[in-house]
Design goal:
Blueprint: H1 23-28, E1 43-47, E2 54-58, E3 65-69
Antiparallel strand pairs: 1-2, 2-3
Length: about 80
Amino acid sequence: PQPAAGGQRYGAAFDESLPLVPVAELLANASAHVDQVVRTHGVIGRVCQHRGCWMELRASDGHEVARVPMAGHAFFIPADS
């Protein structure tokens, strides 16, 4: 997918064949997704201000939050994301 208007894409392209699972569903039924690779979407709530090594991804309702580590510091996201 293309980045949002005015946004920037970093890193490799997404694998569009992976299932798209909403953050709220991942959190509500985490055991169903153990050892699976999925795509998800949400709003970035917070980002590590030290190095950009984690983010909190909020569900569309804004209530559920998933903390997403950046693959063992393999990559980082901009702290102002």
